[in-house]
Amino acid sequence: MDNIQLLAGVLGYKIDCFHITYLGLPLGDKFNEKAIWDSIIGRFEKRLLGWKSTYLSIGGRLTLIKSVLFSIPTHFLSLFPLLASVANKLEAIQRNFHWASFGNDFKFHLVRWNVVKQSLSIGGLGVRDLRLFNDAFLRKCLWRFMNEKGNLWRKLVAIKYGATSLGWFPS
After folding, report:
1. DSSP helix/strand/coil, 164
2. Is the pTM of this model over 0.85?
3. Coil/strand/helix, residue 27
4. Rounded CA gap, 84 and 170, in Å?
5. pLDDT of residue 171
6. Sign of dihedral through CA atoms 79, 85, 91, 94?
């Protein structure tokens, strides 16, 4: 509605966001706010609290990063664009855990994280890049929108947001 603020003032109401979580995703929040990623950052840190990185080998820490930590934000990454500050924070958590340098117990990182993120075939350790993974997920969604014209979810998005001849372009 165009005059929603005016109408709310006449009726004595105030306009606010409807904050609710459904299937682990925040509804009613703006997708480009850092606050929606706080739960993911918290889960990253909480998951690592139970593990003492000094008692795990480098291979054990790497396995934990690749299997457990990487699976935590997957659902979010398939729907929301990853903010650069959040990506840097999540990578810092992974990096510090991998090199066992948490808190005041700093240890030098033996290899740059960009090298660690490279595939095994070119000398890296195969840790996935969260930014690239997010970009691939979002592009897949756009590709599906453009090619799966009969699906119900596509029809609903097209009705709500519109569709051009090239497909749906989110604002």
Report:
1. strand
2. no
3. strand
4. 19
5. 46
6. negative
